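Entry 14. Ran structure prediction on the chain below.
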Amino acid sequence: MSSLLRSSASSASSWLRTAATAAPSTSRHAGAGTRSSAAAASGPRRTISQSTASRKAIAFTLNTTRSETAPAQDASGSGSRHQHGGDGKVLRMIMFGKPGAGKGTLTGRLVKKYDIVSMSTGDLLRQHIAEKTEVGLLAESIVASGGLLPDDIMLKVVTSKLDMLQNRHWILDGFPRTLGQGKMFDEHLSAKGTPLSLIVNLDVPDDVILSRISDRWVHLPSGRVYNLSYNPPKVPGHDDETGEPLTKRPDDNPEVFARRLEQFYASTSPLLAYYSAQAASSGSTTRLVTLSGSTSDEIWPQLENVIRTHFPSVQQRQDVKRRTSLSDAVLAQREQEARKKGEAAVRNP
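Output, structure tokens:
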């Protein structure tokens, strides 16, 4: 089962290593250069055309003077590299990682514990279509005809909601996916004075991910995910809450994983190289970190340390309901205001 994966990953790694000979390196990154680490964020099944530049292979270990290969202890350092981590710094974050690297799990932990809004391009697109906004109607007509959404339409889908958040901390999933989208996204955020502040690159070994997806079962109606290795269902083959049968995702097999691995190598390496250069440029407020580990439990302390060290204005949630979506964030604020009015009325009858 794993021979196909090793063949595919070996092929992908070989041309990445060839490209790596032209990439600069520093002593801070010694030992990390042989790891392949990057991926496009998950999203709805949608093919987006790529520019010629996005098909060029670039080494995945991004060795620059301002990007970081970040074990947990690196995030706690100090010096000129950390000059942008002031108390008022707003978290505007995207995360890259191979399929099955744990992006969803880590994002879920962040928004559950901290006052961060999480958004995905799929949810935003569905919201636009449901609300029949101008961009939603346009996107709906394109999707209905079987067409592909152009980059400028996807940019409007995403930024029309992000622009509403102003000084809120947020994580975006599923965009950008190509170098062209990344540049357009950066231009828009810069024009608004709200540039990306954190880019996280998850480095998880290929064989670990293959084992993970081979053991993965899902309850499709709810999206609950089980893993036979470390999170098995209470009753084999059945969902813990409903008792309904679990199923395998169609793409949870070595053949599909190998193809997806090659696809994200081709599309994501130019993006990460671009963001690495951005983070290294003079006056940049963007930080890029690479977090390495075999499980989300290993990577989580590193990620949390980066957030707590460089974004101290991100506060832990006090609301037991732990609102996380864009609409829930607005609703939670209204409920908090109503609760304060009720408490004031009790104190001053």
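The chain is about 45% helix and 10% strand. Will compare against last week's run tomorrow.
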